[in-house]
């Protein structure tokens, strides 16, 4: 029984915060979420991936996190809706009010700025 409890503890502490939701799942939650659209082969996206992963671990109690590949079939509606012209693209969305704030390109490329933005939200 102790082994089982320990395994569950480690799962929820180390694994579960890294689980991403889909856009629709996040919109049906009450917690604000960080929406990140990326594209395979994008060097700026690869750079931001590390910043995003660290923020996801640090702010998982405050935000849900959604990663969306721009090349997937589901992305075309989101690209049109949010007028996404380039990647990486990051929004902070409050599903309750349906308001979104775009995170600027400079802030995306600066781990310190991105962390401050999430902390201040």
Which terms summarize this structure?
four-stranded mixed sheet, disordered N terminus, alpha+beta, 121 residues, Glutaredoxin, 6 helices, globular
Describe the structure.
This protein is of the alpha+beta class. The chain has a single domain (19-120), classed as Glutaredoxin (3-Layer(aba) Sandwich), CATH 3.40.30.10. It is 46% helix and 19% strand. The chain has helices at residues 2-15, 23-27, 43-58, 75-81, 105-108, 111-120, and strands spanning 33-38, 64-69, 89-94, 99-103. β1, α3 and β2 (64-69) form a beta-alpha-beta unit. α3 packs across α6. The longest helix is centred in the middle third of the chain and has 16 residues, at 43-58.
* Structural domain tally: 1
Low-confidence segments:
2-18
Termini separation (Å)?
40 Å
Structural class computed from helices and strand pairing:
alpha+beta
Task: Give me the strand/helix succession.
Answer: HHEHEHEEHH
* Radius of gyration, whole Å: 15 Å
CATH class membership: Alpha Beta
Q: Average pLDDT across residues? A: 85
Strand order of the largest sheet: 2-1-3-4
Assembly form of the protein: single chain
Please count the beta strands (DSSP E, at least 2 residues each).
Answer: 4
Give a nutshell description of this structure:
The chain has about 120 residues and is of the alpha+beta class. Helices cover about 45% and strands about 20% of the residues.
List the helices and strands and how they pair.
Blueprint: H1 2-15, H2 23-27, E1 33-38, H3 43-58, E2 64-69, H4 75-81, E3 89-94, E4 99-103, H5 105-108, H6 111-120
Parallel strand pairs: 1-2
Antiparallel strand pairs: 1-3, 3-4
Helix pairs in contact: 3-6
